Amino acid sequence: MRKISVKIGLLFFCLIFSMEVCLFFLLHQKIAHSRIDEQLSALVTRGNNHRDVLETYYNQETISHIALMEVKSDTEVVIINEQGEVIISSAEMNHQIQNVLNLAKKDISRNGKVIDDNWKSGAYIATVTPFTAGANKGYLYMFQDTGQIKQLMKQLNRHFLIAGIATAFVTAIIILILSRIIAKPLIKMKEATKKLSQGNFSIQLENNSNDELGELAKSIQLLSSELNHLKTERNEFLASISHELRTPLTYIKGYAEVAKRGHLGMDERLSYLKIITEETTKLTTLVTELLELAQLDNNTFTIQKEVFSVYDSLQKVSQKLLPSFKQAEITLLIVCPENIQILADPVRFEQIIVNLLENARKYSPKGTITTVEVAKRNTGIIISIQDQGKGIPSSDIPLIFERFYRVDKSRSRELGGTGLGLAIVKELIDAHHWDIEVSSKINQGSTFTIIVRDES
Questions:
Q1: Which domain holds residue 110?
Q2: Domain limit, last residue, from 295, 312, 338
Q3: Cα–Cα distance for residue pair 229/269, rounded to 1 Å
Q4: How many Cα atoms sit within 13 Å of 169 on the Cβ side?
């Protein structure tokens, strides 16, 4: 993972360093041009000052004085008349100076003009200022050796180089620290995902940031919790299915062995065969429900929705379950307006109601009433199945839709349930995009409420 911190560091360094190089280049150009402009402006001003003195006191002494002043400075002056003849020069005439003097003297204003600013390759920078002193007219040239400017630029380049190296060094250190800070949670996440791949789901990622890294850490933590929950559920499922299959098979095998004995009477043999049949029926029901859950999990089943009457569907369910409710001495009451229709899979809808009613019958004592009530609301249809049974402890309510979960484990075989009915109900409710809520009070009964939202 150290590679990613290096990559992040190099990426940031290249980006920031490129920006710094561009900014330094622009700043250098700006300062260099500013300094050159200052030198040229000062040279023009110096020439204008000499021009003013020359026009005021035009004589040989003034001309000599101007030349003498430039001898003692880092600039040179050359004064020529209108015909181009040199009146005086503070420096020895050479071909560089002569070339400047031979330049065309057009568009030269009284305030002077820069006529040579090539400081990089030329020996001088030069300006010219026209003068008029009575009948005497001419031009006053100012020259400055470019060596001083080149030295100034050299120092400026050296300062920028030192500043650039120092900035790059500081930037590299800061980016190195920042990249390690950024990469540190990524390293922890990599180690966490490695543990997940090895089957260790008990990981803890501490990240209190609200940025993308924090969200990623929370997602990995959530994934770990979900995988740990699934692992626990899988182990419990395998243990439960093993127990649920072993028990009826043990009964079937044991009573089959007993029924094979020759000395048994017909009545006794028939009672054993009846037990074998009951256990076979339970086993068949269990296998059927497991296959159905497998189809629900793999999304290999289809929901064929159509509009049908809820009243008619509940009447069919009532006729189907009424014998078992009468045998249990429990009253089944259907309260549903005849004009309510619903968009759903009619077969799956009946399966949901049957499973919930069977669950109510198993856990309700004799002489009680189980009521199915349907009402239309603004947001859809509410279907409530209320019994007067033993109730569900509040701590068990969040778990009743899990597979093989039973509230009363001691009476599970007596009641004949597989612990899969409510799990199938929940899967079918989710497949229809409905909601189901449960409320219960001990020894007063439970209410399962299906919320069917209007899809029109």
A1: 2-152
A2: 295
A3: 47
A4: 6
